[in-house]
Amino acid sequence: MQDRHRLYDVTYLPHPGYGRRYCHTPQFLKTLSRYKAAICTASRFQYATRKIVEATAAGCVVITNLKETLPVIDGNLVRIADDVPLDVVSRVVAEQTAGYDPDRQEHYARLCKSHYDYRAEGDRLASAIETLRSTYAP
Questions:
Q1: 72 within 8 A of 121, measured Cβ to Cβ
Q2: In this structure, what are the phi and psi dihedrals at residue 77, rounded to the nearest 5 degrees?
Q3: Are the C-beta atoms of 76 and 103 separated by less than 8 Å?
Q4: Residue 122 three-state SS
Q5: Dihedral, CA atoms, 26, 31, 34, 36, nearest 10 degrees?
Q6: N vs C: which end of the chain shows fewer Cβ within 10 Å?
Q7: CA 127/CA 138 separation, integer angstroms
Q8: H/E segment holding residue 78
Q9: Distance CA 52, CA 82 (A)
């Protein structure tokens, strides 16, 4: 994004790339935890990306163009349209940063960590499979 310098107090974190040699997630979460808000766009095809969940877990208010709702953390998402002017995005970032509530963000971070943890997701999936298996009548 070549116009990012026009946004209110924004640090651009480029994608670290993919690979098998190093996991960037712990450092990314540590970096995010130093910010009050994060701009996390949806994918080109409008599905939620991991960075939306990670930013919430790190305590950030998430500003996003995501249209779908996310279980448990949807109240932490501040939605903006794809075609919103840059000055409006900048104003939203400034407002969210100024109105940052650490207690609210801790609440969403805790909810996020308990719901989106891979073990919790695995338990929910196993339970759903067992329910389906036990109620299936050929």
A1: no
A2: -95, 130
A3: no
A4: helix
A5: -100
A6: C
A7: 20
A8: strand 77-79
A9: 16
102 Cβ contact list (under 8 Å, min separation 6): 59
Q: pLDDT of 81-137, one tens digit each?
A: 999 999 999 999 999 999 999 999 999 999 999 999 989 889 989 999 999 999 987
Cβ-in-10-Å burial (0-12, 13-18, 19+) of 65 comes to middle
Residue matched to tokens 């450092």:
27
pLDDT for 8 beyond 80: no
Site of tokens 């891979």: 118
Amino acid residing at 136: Y
Q: If you search the block for the tokens 């712990």, which residue do you land on?
A: 26
* Chain centroid to CA 28: 12
Tokens of 118: 């891979």
> Any idea how long the chain is?
138
